[in-house]
Amino acid sequence: MKQIKLTDQEGIIGFWESIGKYTVNIHLPETIDSMLTCILPDERMLPAKLRKPGTKILLTAVVTESDPELPRPVLGGQKIVEVLEIEKAEPM
What is the spatial distance between Cα 8 and Cα 13, in angstroms, rounded to a whole number? Predict the structure, then answer.
């Protein structure tokens, strides 16, 4: 399982209705429309005060892109990953 460390990334909380999971959406720098969608397998990974779609956060986490059960991208330029561990999630 390939793991990627994200450090102090600016993201926006979302909720993916079709899978019933919270996400953190991160715009990839130096791109026009590329986005990393980080799916949280358990909502308790985020403090309750951050579980509001549209909330801007600063995220440090370990994610993986190797899970074959992850949903397929729905937008061009979107990459889907799953959050394994959150080290820091704080409001901006």
Answer: 15
Instruction: Confirm if 89 and 46 have CB atoms less than 8 A apart.
Output: yes
* Range from 3-12, 59-68, 69-78 that averages highest in pLDDT: 3-12
What does residue 5 show for φ and ψ, rounded to 5 degrees?
-95, 125
Domain boundaries, the chain: 3-91
Per-residue pLDDT reduced to its tens digit, 21-68: 999 999 987 888 889 999 999 999 999 999 999 999 999 999 998 667
pTM to 2 decimals? 0.89
Name which CATH class applies to 3-91.
mainly beta
Rounding to the nearest 10 degrees, give the CA dihedral for residues 15, 47, 40, 82: 130
DSSP string, 55-76: -EEEEEEEEES--TTSPPPSST
